[in-house]
Amino acid sequence: ATTTVRERALKFPDGFVWGAATAAFQVEGATGADGRGPSIWDTFCRRPGAVAGGATGDTACDHYHRYAGDVALMAELGIEAYRFSVSWPRVQPPGSGPANQAGLDFYQRLVDELLEAGIAPYATLYHWDLPQALEDAGGWTARDTAHRFADYARLVYDRIGDRVHTWLTVNEPWVAASLGYGVGVHAPGRTSAAEALVASHHLLLAHGLGARALREAGAREIALTLNLAPVLTPAQVHDPAAVPAEADAEAVARVDCLINRQFLDPVLRGEYPATTLDIIERIAGLGHIRDGDLAAINQRVDLLGINYYTPCVVRARPGEPANPAFPGTEGIEFTGGQAPTTAVGWPIVPTALTRLLLRLSRDYPGVGLIVTENGAAFEDEVTGEHVHDADRTAFLEGHLRAAHAALEAGADLRGYHVWSLLDNFEWAEGYRPRFGIVHVDFATQRRRPKDSALWYRDVIARGGLGSRRPRRPTLEEVA
Ligand code: PNW
């Protein structure tokens, strides 16, 4: 006999914030408008072979001109919060000096439109579009860039601080430093493990100095956003309770010190883990870490923003060379595990989100948690008016169930932003991978909510997930 198991309806707490996220360079376009200066991504896009298809951010989703329509669309979907980023080269084209008021005007218009629609603005101050002039002066390998960031944060706060409750300083310092300065697949395209480690420290310092400047100016809620990846052995991908062998456990702990604790510990505990510090010392020296830096980085934050897409799966393998994105990982193999993957090849492991949220609650108590990005690229099926993306809906539902499990176990999770509101410029991958819950036809700029957006609208309206009969397997799957 078969029993029909219904997935249970899940209610999220009152006040849980349902949002959607984008980033300036990925959606705005209008890169020459109103005095905006060049960023490292404008430059990088013009380097032959750097970005798939030679794509640029010149037009992107033209959100700079279409923001009002995009806000109206969010309102129709019932989205309660919009996480956008502010483009530094719009606000301060050379990266220092006085503000470009015309650039700030855009964010004021956007924020006013959001508030008018009852949508809470969540402003990220740095989502990778460094002014090119600062890169020419050393970029994130230069300590001064962190000070420039704090000045810029203050300029933005002075204009829209009365209207924006939640501020996120820096988005994913690991990606900005490792992929930008270590592996070279992101702007500015440098390839030095030592520079990546120095850049990481300066991005952390920027967060700390920026958070301090925002706090002094009166900001109410301050956060940063980290790309956190639970580090698992291949066995734990399927069985979260699997106990790793000692050598594998050491590999897990080491990688955890690079992807997660290199950022969590300085920000939330005011120190680097010993393993991280050893690796930094061996590869970059410690000359760039000055007395007082860790205290500056360890500002009180009200929220920790978590970008979660996929776990990091590793095991010990003697003789394996270090992964270029993770200096100091000789003898560790990075594998995918056996999970199904998204269109960009990232394994789909929702249970790892529960694990991550509970680990953060246990190891870093006292800070509110918010998922600032979670989502997936899939091949959507466009048929006339409709865009079918059952894979994305299943991905989001699985991760919301995982988030709910963490809430039930006591995690202080305050909200969730889907990545992304719109299909957009996916960095080195160009416009091919589509992460949006809203489809964008880049030839016409037409927006069409995908099935996942309509599903998300219902989730928000209901304050959680309805009960659901799992899909019956198809004949091919049974055969
Ligand atoms: C995040 N990786 O980026 C960013 O915050 C978004 O701007 C981006 O569009 C989104 O995730 C989807 O990729 C990442 O290679 C980019 O490990 C690359 C990696 C991780 C995160």
TrEMBL record:
Catalytic activity, EC: 3.2.1.21
Catalytic activity: Hydrolysis of terminal, non-reducing beta-D-glucosyl residues with release of beta-D-glucose
Cellular component terms (Gene Ontology): cytosol
GO BP terms, alphabetized: cellulose catabolic process; regulation of DNA-templated transcription
Root EC class: hydrolase
Positions with a binding annotation for substrate: 26, 127, 171, 309, 419, 426-427
GO molecular function annotations of the record: beta-glucosidase activity; DNA binding
Signal peptide: none
Keywords: Carbohydrate metabolism, Cellulose degradation, DNA-binding, Glycosidase, Hydrolase, Polysaccharide degradation, Transcription, Transcription regulation
Active site: 172, 373
Family designation: Belongs to the glycosyl hydrolase 1 family.
The protein's name: Beta-glucosidase
Organism: Sphaerisporangium rufum
